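Complex 331.
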Amino acid sequence: MKILSLLLFITLSFSLSAQNDGFSIVLHGGAGYITPENLSESKQIAYQSSLSNALALGTQILERGGTSEEAVITVIIFLENDTLFNAGRGAVLTHDNKVSHDASIMNGSDLNAGAIAGSSRIKNPIRGAAAVKDFSEHVFLSGNGAEEFAELQSLEMVPPDYFILQSRLDQLDKILKNENKSSGYILDPIVGNGKFGTVGCVALDTDGNITAATSTGGMMNKKYGRIGDSPMIGAGTYANNKTCGVSCTGHGEYFIRVGVAKEISDQIQFGQVPLKDAVHYTISESLNNLNGKGGVIAIDSLGEIVIEFNTPGMFRAWQKAGEEPQIQMFK
Ligand code: ASP
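Predicted structure with aspartic acid bound:
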């Protein structure tokens, strides 16, 4: 009898210690020239409320013991459907007035990942990425192929016009006129004229599983089928339960060249560097050395949340179990 209770005690303590005692969630809505001067009061209120609602959706799922994957997908779908952000409906436009979505998702438990790029008919691109992860033998699908696969998976499809807003058409028009006037000079797409709004989310659930995901329309006025870092595993998104989960936003070309998300994870894995220092090194050294602009959100296996950016602002919200929700936009 005594041996039996001892065994029960050992099993119980083991399963309790293997479990995380809480959860953490962090989301972003893009980094860029986000300052109080640049954002009207009514816009600030709109962003504040959207970020707060998105966070609440994710937190509710984690509070009732739902998975980090469920939380992250729910948050991203909400932000994709919100026209305030450069993802899903309301995404920025390509040089030829089209939308071209990129999205990715990764599970830290088994390093399973899925991504799509250059789609314009999948209503929620993050669902496309998740379907690639769960139901295909591939990691990354693009263009017509990604859409064909999404249709086969019975995902909701919409005509490309569904995503296009008049405000985005006007914005592109203005940029093209300036481009012609200034004989080819283009303002810095992230810092110079404020086309921020990519969305991302990272969560750690009470089972200790981390999921990271990112969704975007990419960069305004992009050409030649350009794809950014957001759908690239290791650049814009990464998750590993042993280290951390990361979602990035910013000038994708630089994030790809650095391999931002994986570089952060590698510092923890191979250098035993704390998440805060790993993120700081990647932003302030690796990215700054190339003059790349943007930011990252990250959570480590202990639920530590880190956010860092080298732009004037970043839309962000986060919460840990038992703590108050936090929403911020400016430095
Ligand atoms: N990283 C995205 C891209 O380069 C854009 C952004 O995050 O604002 O496509």
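Residues 172 and 183 are 17 Å apart (CA to CA).
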